[in-house]
Queue: 2 jobs
Job 1
Amino acid sequence: MESRRLSITLISVVCLLGLCNAIESPEYTVVHSESEFEIRLYRQSSWMSAPVRDISFEKATRNGYHRLFQYIQGANLNFSRLSMTVPVLTSIVPGAGPLHSSAYFVRFYLPVKFQANPPSPLPELNLKSVAWDGHCVAVRKFSGFARDGNIVKEAEKLATSLSRSPWANHTSSESGYAYSIAQYSSPFKFIGRVNEVWVDIDKSGEGCKSSGVAAY
């Protein structure tokens, strides 16, 4: 019985951090695209957020994800089970740590069914529902695993690309996050992994509005 429970849990983990069929994700429109990055306009959306204090991005993501996983499996006041979504988004708060961070927020995109009225998490999970207004994000894709050793480099590459673009002076500090790492792939997937670095763009950013380029 214990091994069966473990198998079910592993499958659920694969679905949440990986890609089961028909997984929901936040909707956006691509307003600008270059070889090294693109600018997306995300629609208004709701997320469940887990604050974590840790030096390590990897440990923080695991800690926050574990609490979010309990929440979607029914650890909420409604005992509701929520469908899997992607990405798992870890936002990095600027600080003095070796990874340019002192704290993190790990986030789970709420399924459309629960966007307007998400179940309240159990208090001991220390989770909070967060509503995001529509906003623009600069995105750089990268493969492999998102690790402590490579996320800063990927964020720096995005910053360099932006510095040579019309968005050079339009990164936003309103959110309070240096950048975010979006993970789409299962931890058991070793080839063709998909990750992204996200940096918020302020509302005055060049062309930061829907242009009908592509909608997702």
Note: The first strand starts at residue 28 and ends at 33.
Job 2
Amino acid sequence: MLKEYKSVQEVVGPLMIVEGVEGIKYEELVEIQTQTGEKRRGRVLEIDGDRAMIQLFEGSAGINLKDTTVRFLGKPLELGVSEDMIGRIFDGLGNPIDKGPKIIPEKRVDINGSPINPVSRDYPSEFIQTGISTIDGLNTLVRGQKLPIFSGSGLPHNNVAAQIARQAKVLGDDAKFAVVFGAMGITFEEAQFFIDDFTKTGAIDRAVLFINLANDPAIERISTPRMALTCAEYLAFEKGMHVLVILTDLTNYAEALREVSAARKEVPGRRGYPGYLYTDLSQIYERAGKIKGKPGSITQIPILTMPEDDITHPIPDLTGYITEGQIILSRELYKSGIQPPIFVIPSLSRLKDKGIGRGKTREDHADTMNQIYAGYASGREARELAVILGDSALSDADKAFAKFAENFDKEYVNQGYETNRSILETLDLGWKLLKVIPRTELKRIRTEYIDKYLADKD
């Protein structure tokens, strides 16, 4: 039986205190009816005796304590899921906003879900082609992995996200592929960019979009990634699809957590973020992966902007602990006009070795990846040395590496946002660039691969 109360005692920011409650459960969904008859939603955040703290999704403006009715619905926040969600656009609470018909759900699912049990996890090993050389060739994404993109304010992470959403596919697998896109706290202009890009390129036909705008209540931001992941879990583990989940921007999500934490008067942690930020982020990231015996999978690419480009900031710092690597966008490369400005030296995919090689990409992938990385690092060092001491201080090998680094930025990294390179095109381009380095310096590639592939590029 639904319980209804008119005992609102206090409203502080996005939080409401109700007294005299009985039998209320944590995370229970709440309906609030204001004095004007307007209905808003919330959820139970905390229970202390007969007092309940409610988190309001639509904000607290205009609420009259005396005349407000609170109804506890006896169930958590749920999402109605169906395959018909593919190709549709929803708000952060799962309501359609694309002027299409309402979704008739196959079933309703609690959005809080749970991380995948480590015992039932299957090890990620299948290569996912994003069409971006710096990712496919050097920081390979594999099915079931969590690989975040660390960006900065003003950098083109939206373009990179849209490009991955358009181009990503699993090679050699007939299973259906879908993209679930969750946006938190983005501007209307950014939202329109994604909608237009997905629609124009046809990517919308295999995508589900959940969009929370910057002028929507901050509290809705906490639900948006969970809505997206609930949809992804349904498509992956019940419909057998390979699902790529792109979440942007996790920094806005963490700011919403901090706002709620401050309203609850909790003791702040680093930089004012709640002490449970690590736990909260892990509950999102650990819902990605593969489950033994099930054909579907969830691969996750969270995107976050590092405040002041500080990689030691709590959000990227904690994210790095939980996920399997990071792709880092460089302001230096961006100012040089390189698109996408992915800086490969600090970027890392900890599972890249599992998704490459014979039968997955090509036999020479691991060797060329190591050689290109080493050559690029040596080339950047040589360029820095030339700035200090002049070109005359460089050896012939140093000059070759410096030339390689210059060509690498211009041709390999700077592919633009519309170019979709296959993994074979990426590997062939790597060999073409390696020609400028003397063979005696190619110490990380087996001789048989040099004889086989470098000769083809002469």
Note: The first helix runs from residue 133 to 136.
